[in-house]
Design brief:
The protein is of the alpha+beta class. The chain has helices at 3-14, 42-54, 88-98, 153-163, 211-223, 231-234; strands spanning 16-24, 61-63, 72-82, 103-111, 123-131, 145-146, 165-168, 183-194, 197-204, 254-260. The chain has 2 domains: 3-111, Pseudouridine synthase I, catalytic domain, N-terminal subdomain (Alpha-Beta Plaits, 2-Layer Sandwich); 123-260, Alpha-Beta Plaits, CATH 3.30.70.660. Strands 1, 2, 3, 4, 5, 6, 7, 8, 9 and 10 form a 10-stranded mixed β-sheet that branches. Strand 8 and strand 9 form a beta hairpin. The longest helix has 13 residues, at 42-54.
């Protein structure tokens, strides 16, 4: 074995794998995933800081999922591998020092080498917030979908019950033709009202591109009396298509709440 190869192996073995939990206000960002056309993404912000911290040109960070532009997070999870003598708390403090004020690391943990934030995720929880009144929402307008029309929550709950279980959700994604499976398992859909706000909370093993926002748009149509609760079952059949489901609601009402492992 060449000396250079031995050095490379030793360097790989020295890499430490850090899992971080992140909160962010997604209002002014172009989503989680790095993009060639802009550096204004959550992933891009982290990778720039990690490169600065390590002195490397590039350090990859992997998120548990790709939140869209405008979507928020209370508990996004990501991991990255670096060679450092810093403690986990020191790494966290360094990152937070350089992050903008609308992004923050709230927890850090060193993990085994094989841990991957996306591949090892078992369950995710999202919530969608609807400001359901004609009274202006002054202080939270960046985090809610403002819709003054009264919603029939009981009808929405009947429709939501159809979604629970293992189904093909291809009618609820903006992704067109893909070889990847569109089958997912939803554990629960809870719909609650707190004064003027309606919150829909989804928990499941994973969600397709735009899935939560389209599910919410469809449930809203049920709540407005524009479709029946039982029509949800038709959308889960094998010949269902995207145009049969409801509208894609705005990103700002959506938040990634928790990722479980």
């Amino acid at each position: 074995m060449k000396e250079t190869d031995r050095e490379a192996i030793l360097k790989i073995k020295a890499m430490r794998n850090f899992k971080i939990t992140i909160q962010y206000d997604g209002t002014r960002y172009q989503g989680w995933q790095r993009q060639d056309s802009t550096n204004n993404t959550i992933q891009g912000k982290f990778e720039a800081i990690l490169a600065k911290m390590t002195g490397l040109k590039f350090v990859q960070i992997d998120g548990s999922g790709r939140t869209d532009a405008g979507v928020h997070a209370l508990g996004q999870v990501a991991n990255f591998k670096i060679d450092t003598d810093m403690t986990a708390k020191e790494v966290m403090a360094y990152i937070n020092q350089y992050l903008p004020e609308d992004i923050g690391v709230i927890a850090i943990q060193e993990m085994p080498e094989r841990f991957h934030s996306r591949l090892n995720a078992k369950r995710k929880t999202y919530c969608y917030r609807i400001w359901n009144t004609d009274i202006p929402c002054i202080f939270s307008h960046r985090y809610v979908y403002e819709m003054p029309e009264e919603l029939d929550l009981e009808a929405m709950r009947l429709a939501a019950a159809c979604l629970v279980g293992k189904h093909d959700f291809k009618a609820f994604t903006s992704t067109k033709k893909s070889k990847k499976s569109t089958v997912r398992t939803i554990d629960s859909v809870e719909i609650d009202r707190n004064d003027n706000e309606v919150v829909i909370t989804y928990s499941g093993d994973g969600f397709l591109y735009h899935m939560v926002r389209i599910l919410t748009g469809t449930l809203i149509e049920v709540g407005l009396g524009q479709r029946s609760p039982m029509s949800m079952q038709v959308l889960l059949e094998k010949d269902a298509t995207r145009d049969m489901a409801g509208a894609l609601v705005p990103a700002k009402g959506l938040c990634l709440v928790e990722v479980r492992y």
